[in-house]
Amino acid sequence: MQGANSEKILISGIGLISAIGSNVQECLEALSSGRTGIVRAQFLQTRHKDEFMLGEVKLSNEQLFDILAISEEDRIRHTRTSLLALSAGREALLDAGFKPGDFGGRRIGIISATTIGGMDKSENSYPTRDLASGFVQTHPSGDSTDKLGEYLGIDAYRSTLSTACSSAANAIMHGARLIHHGYLDAVLVGGVDPLSRFTLNGFNALMILDREWCCPFDQNRRGLNLGEGAGFIVIEKESSVKERAAKSYCSLAGYANANDAYHQTASSPDGEGAFMSMSKALEMSGLRPDEIDYINVHGTGTSNNDLSEGLALKRVFGDTLPPFSSTKAFTGHTLGAAAGVEAVISILAIEHGLIFPNLNFSEPIVEFGVAPVTKLISRPVRTVLSNSFGFGGNNSTLVFSR
Amino acid sequence: MLCDGKEVLYLPGEDFPSFAKTLYKESGAEYPKFYKMSDMCKLGFLAAEFLLKDLDEVKVADPDQKALVLGCRASSLHADIEYSRTMNDIPSPALFVYTLANIVSGEIAIRHCFRGEELMLVQDGPESREHENYLKVLMAEGKTKFCISGFVDYDENGNYIAELSLIKKK
Amino acid sequence: MDLREKLKGELIEQLNLEDITPADIDSSAPLFGEGLGLDSIDALEIIVLLEKEYGIKISNPADGKDAMQSIDSLAAFIEKNRK
């Protein structure tokens, strides 16, 4: 194993598909105009159709097949998961200036993350054991990663991880470490999750869903809205970006992961895990808390998360709390994709000098006392801190900097 | 169940639920939440229990320096199937909680106060180049003193394996 | 069978309280915090039990809080609301 190098890790490409758009540009427009993508589901078949609003990607599987030009014979090998992953993964790779399979001799990898893999197909096919649908092959979490590798010509290094709602952040961290330690030159990292009855019913059983539009960080928040999508970025070592004379958006300046060790699905009341992941990520970045220009919070809108995260924010930032917002009222909580989706949003904030609003907000949480940004702000954004906290006490924070 | 190569308990032919129960009693752990766990979590919990038994230096170490890097193949498939059965009637929150691959790491972390990094990789089997690489990188960074590394898998047919090691930074 | 005794058995079953028998549960003792030391997920499972066994639907966990103080309060709640 080679020694660690201290080269900067730059983001050279971004890709996104979510409830607010099928690509980065569409999503940016929605974020800038305050337009949520959370509505009644169009494609997901569920008895709860009229009860909950969801952040569904506004394309059917058939439309995605056509856009991705997937041949008829090949279609059975896919799930909504792999289609979403391909959409955003391909966009990121092309944005970075790479062509599938053509990397100029560079060592490229994929680290992807998901919570339910091909469950969207399995939940329809398993009850009747419909083997012809191919669900047995497409169910595993690694399937969409393999599909990405296959379609984008990346086979040197593929890895899949699954740590609930912080999954994609951990994929990004994992990729960054591999670059730091000389294993790879560039990595396509991020996460994907589709909507499913499995997840909807499960979250409903935990009674943490909002039947209306979620209001993150609001005193009267009622829970979260589920969403689906994929967010991928290409992280690359600086020398490689320079050699290619490619553009870069910013650098991945810091990252950290810590375990709350409190409960399987709830965060500790004092936000210890969140406090640790934020503190360590900042420490690694070399930035002071008051040097952060914007925080994209995890902000799911649940009673537990927002309070816990709020208290942790206070502990880390004290009186110098930067403008912050949760963008989950736009996209919904996209679970395994969330940190990837929000990494792209954080990078867009830096690229375009925009701080996106926290929709549906009325009054601050009493114990926290601070309001998020509620209107689009246009000003230079050089540094962003992004939080993603998952079940199992898995807390991750990423810091982006230009 | 083997610990450092020595046999702790051998119950051939016993199904996992009863084997786990016997092993739990054998471990001497007083942890009623054990009974609420999915089979995959019980598996990981028990392996960790015996792994860390009598290791006082781990108990007293700074929680921030204790990490978990695990791999699995079938993810939480067994728990997913159990939960999905309840979807036909009233979905069970207690079963849903376990429908994520990394809850087993969470359970171990809660039990032994591991507050450092936590990662769950999805692998083809116990041997994984990616897992090895990640471990080397993590330990080289220097912030982790102890790391539980290994493979915990419980598939849809009830086949199971857990192999855990404790890695210590010199 | 007395509703309280029935409830104790049902809770033991529903919440996987394996090493506990109905005799171990004091009807007036707190179910959460001390006593049986149940947590938020157990509370949700009790809500499922109330719907499945007694036809009582609670849509907001906060509504069930008072009812779930103890076996006594749970029994009283069921007697008042059962279908």
UniProtKB/TrEMBL annotation, chain C:
Cell cycle as UniProt keyword: no
Name under which the protein is recorded: Phosphopantetheine-binding protein
Pfam families: PP-binding (PF00550)
Superkingdom assignment: Bacteria
InterPro entries documented for this protein: ACP-like_sf, PP-bd_ACP, Ppantetheine_attach_site
Alphabetic keyword roster: Phosphopantetheine, Phosphoprotein
Residue ranges of domain Carrier in the record: 1-82
